[in-house]
Amino acid sequence: MSKLLADPATLTHDQLEEGTVFAPRFDAAGLVTVVTVEAGSNDVLMLAHMNAEALTLTLETGIAHYWSRSRAKIWKKGETSGETQQVVELRTDCDQDAIVLVVNQSGRGAACHTGRKSCFYRRAAVIDGQAALEDTGLPILFDPAEVYASQP
User: Fold this and answer.
1) pLDDT band at residue 150 using 50, 70 and 90 as cut-offs
2) Could you tell me if residue 152 is inside a domain?
């Protein structure tokens, strides 16, 4: 574990939930869930995961880093797209097993790889007795095919 992060196993229940020691509780895969919101608007931009290394890099640099489960590697948000996230505040929940990351989104303002501001650009609705997804109308701020053309 990083020197910045304490081991939650060394804390009592009260210390974990009421104390001042940051000791994130990673799941069996070594990940903690992160909800990323935009500073000012409080719009939910994305949901991702961090491992200890990504969390440490985020704390040390002030730029959001995540763990890409699909690529199995650290992912510096915006490294390819230029859509970086400057951390304004990092919060943890009561038992330190989830994080809310408040960020200023740079670039064109798109947090989603689809080129939209938010990854949550669709809503579920029941239409003619079937669950369906409806687009919320978030505009596409960049062309993903162009931005990620050189990516595998």
Assistant:
1) confident
2) no
Closest CA to 78 of 99, 56, 63: 63
Residue 2 lies in a domain: no
Domain assignment of residue 63, yes or no: yes
How many domains is the chain built from? 1
Residue 22 sits in a domain whose CATH number is 3.10.20.810
Model pTM above 0.70: yes
**pLDDT value, residue 152:** 64
Range of the structural domain that residue 106 is part of: 8-147
pLDDT, tens digit (0-9, with 9 covering 90-100), for 96-125? 999 999 999 999 999 999 999 999 999 999
- Each residue of 15-32: pLDDT tens digit? 999 999 999 999 999 999
Dihedrals phi, psi of 59, to nearest 5 degrees: -65, -40
Q: Which of 149, 137, 152 is nearest to 81 (CA)?
A: 149
Q: Tell me, yes or no, whether 3 lies in a domain.
A: no
